[in-house]
Amino acid sequence: MRILFGASALLWVMYLSLAATWQPDWMPDISLVRRLTTYEDPLDGLTRSIYAFAHGDIIAAFKLNPMFPAYIGIVFYGIFASLRMFFRKTDSINPMPILTVVAITLILTMVIRVLVGLPIRG
Question: Less packed terminus of the chain by CB within 10 Å, N or C?
Fold first, then answer.
């Protein structure tokens, strides 16, 4: 089980590193939410917004996904929690606070999209 926590932290760090460095134009549309419902996925544009932010285009980053700072914070918390479990600094982590933050962030993403006039249907 300990290996899974280390692998989890490593995968999230790799995602952030790749999202910040790769040219995102090559990426296929993998949004399952949009494919099933024709509605925008709250996470849509997250990788491209990380790329834009890493390259100094903060306005584009917010246009691609207005809640990207919160999602990055969630990812860093996931890395932190995984590493604590990997190094046995704690036996367990209560998932409810982070699940609550994730749910609120997903809802806020859709609300902000509507308020600023971004499309909600694909």
Answer: N
